[in-house]
Amino acid sequence: MGPGKKTWTAALLATAVLMITGACGSEGADGAITLRFSYWGSDARQKMTQEAIKRFEAKNPDIDIEEEFSGFGTYYDTLATRVASDQTPDVITLEIRGLREYAERGTLADLSSAVDTADIDGKVLATGAIDGKQFAIPTGVNAWSLVVDPKAVKDAGQRLPDDTTWTWDQYVDLAAKITAGSGGKVYGTQQSFNPAFLQIFAAQRGESLYNGNKIGVSPETLKAWWAIHQKLIRTKGSPDAAKSIELGTQGEDRSLFATRNGAMGMWWSNQLGSINKAAGGKEVDLLRMPKAQGAAAGGMFLQPAMFYTAAAKSPHQAAAAKFIDFMVNDPEAGAIILSDRGLPASSKVLAAVRDKLPETDKKTLAFLEEIKGELADSPAAPPKRASAIEAVLTRYTNEVLFDRMTPDEAAQKLITEANALIAG
């Protein structure tokens, strides 16, 4: 404390310091602000993020960034614990499925006028807004897509489909023919149980994944979705149930693609580069998702790969906003991060880095530009506790694939449990 200020006892001072530094960032003896920044990812993501942080600190010598980094598997549990114990990081990385929960509990600050969003597509930006407040800034965009190995398809004696017209039946048939044509050495496809897959499938049938605080998917659509998984297993277009479920818990570095034992699979488009790398650099392409017979729309959509948010209780919100602005809008940061957090949301940054993108990312950009006119509007933030829906969906999918429940029984129980979860 400066001269003339109230004198504090050592105990009171220690308590105050804990209160100030515990909740969010701190201010050092030299006046420098320390911001805590939480994010998840691979070692490669951490390395490039650290490089971007160094550039920011060089430009802003009065701000230090303290990383709180983890793998994805433990990220949200750790974050929830920190928020509950008043240890909220100053800058928090979130997915769209966790956004509403943290915003409505008062964890996040309104960044509406704090970060420059002029170069971000309005529809994409709107995914980070709730009740007129901009709680989150998108890092970059991607689309849930079908990934294919053209050589594996050709080696199995098959041709790539016309992805502007192909159907789910044709997808299942092609997968079975690839497995048979390879003599069982390469599976036609790897199964996916991601809610984004179900969201696209439901949209093709005129439904949505969520309808307010309820599940918008009908039992009939769930049963039709499970029927695709069952048929893939029955025709050997994919591995059996046990292997498919095991693969579903693993990252792309342990996928059938990575081991050169699969010709197709579904991932977010920004994962194409890591899939290519995990597979030893083999050629991979992106295709449109198949459609339901007679579907009026394909149901694919752009979604932010992730968001940057700031803590509402941070004593350094201006500094936090400056860091977020740098990570989203500065071409120097964009040149380091490239498409790791999705193709840059800022059109200015994308224009600056597009020639520097690796070839697989250029392929992703070309694909998204090709299908841009076909994409549905980016979905709004889902209900609170939507982050738990994936586990519910996976659990009942397992019950169906292992024949422990009929699709009728599983569909009814899933909807009842999910509705209770997101309404509560």
TrEMBL record:
<protein>
    <submittedName>
        <fullName>Multiple sugar transport system substrate-binding protein</fullName>
    </submittedName>
</protein>
<keyword id="KW-0732">Signal</keyword>
<dbReference type="InterPro" id="IPR006059">
    <property type="entry name" value="SBP"/>
</dbReference>
<feature type="signal peptide">
    <location>
        <begin position="1"/>
        <end position="25"/>
    </location>
</feature>
<dbReference type="Pfam" id="PF13416">
    <property type="entry name" value="SBP_bac_8"/>
</dbReference>
<keyword id="KW-0813">Transport</keyword>
<dbReference type="InterPro" id="IPR050490">
    <property type="entry name" value="Bact_solute-bd_prot1"/>
</dbReference>
<keyword id="KW-0762">Sugar transport</keyword>
